Amino acid sequence: MPLAVIRTQPFWAAVVASTSMLLALAPYGLFLLAGLPALLLCLYVQGLRGPRLPAALLPLPFLGYAVAGPGDRPVTVLVCLAALAAAATGLTRRALAEARAHSATERAIAETLQEHAARGERARIARELHDVVAHHISMIAVQAETARLTTEGMPPAGAERLLAIGDTARTALTEMRRLLGVLREDAGTPAAPQRRPQPGLQQLAELVDEAREASAAATRLIVSGPVRPLDQGVELTAYRIVQEALTNARRHAPGAAVDVALRYTPQGLHLSVRDNGPGPARAPARTGHGLTGMRERAAMVGGELSSGPAPGGGFRIEVLLPAPAADSPQETAV
């Protein structure tokens, strides 16, 4: 039988080969083994490429012939076992190939979703940092213009430099808006501006209260060190990290108590979020884009983030963010 027929029409090739073998088993017996490879190849290709049900049913006539048919019984049993093995091998290889393809598709979908989520998170970070940086650059432009217009006895060269500073600041704002537009397009987010003020550490108590009401679990905010205003970007980063950490705690450890701790140190702001849920058993679930987004936020202001099972149970997130030097600590709880 031509290989082209076996490849393109595996079912009919297997039917022809099986019928021929069955018809010839009784009169020819052992001599029929010469045609056995063609039969096995047809059954194997049918199992590998053809419909599954015919591939599983085609060897059954050989089984019936081996049990009740005439002729040389050992030869019949040998042909039956070989036919079953050929069809089973083809079906098994197909199942393994389909499982690998399905697994690869799932991985590709998961990676695409994670990348899309990461791009959206980066665009959100960029929008928030744009508001912070734009405020500072606007102040540079305003102060330069004010100094140029109100300073008495300003030399012409100094006035020109202040005018150049203001123009440069305004140009920087324009370029930042263009960059933000590119990030929005890349992440597929709408270009409408966000008009609400960006949150900071002053809003953490409200955030903790909302988390406590949403989960009906004990959620505390503990602050140590002299409370002082920090850079707006640092405060925004701390707020967003706490927000994401509380969301993760509700998702992965519903009902668990959560402590949010802020500690002002001479080196910076130390932030920790810890719950008392089943940490080690739950740790593999904490590897999504949420932690990645928190690490990116911390890194963008020069900070560091670590996470993992907490000693004694639960899950913890530790963050160090740069901040001005502080004095001796004091502790309060909300």
UniProtKB/TrEMBL annotation:
GO terms for molecular function: ATP binding; phosphorelay sensor kinase activity; protein dimerization activity. The keyword Membrane applies. Keywords: ATP-binding, Kinase, Membrane, Nucleotide-binding, Phosphoprotein, Transferase, Transmembrane, Transmembrane helix, Two-component regulatory system. GO terms for cellular component: membrane. Gene3D superfamilies: 1.20.5.1930, Histidine kinase-like ATPase, C-terminal domain. CDD domains: HATPase_UhpB-NarQ-NarX-like. Pfam families: HATPase_c (PF02518), HisKA_3 (PF07730). Residues 240-325 form the Histidine kinase domain. Its EC number is 2.7.13.3. The chain crosses the membrane at residues 12-45. It is an enzyme of class 2 (transferase). It catalyses: ATP + protein L-histidine = ADP + protein N-phospho-L-histidine. This is histidine kinase. It comes from Streptomyces indicus.
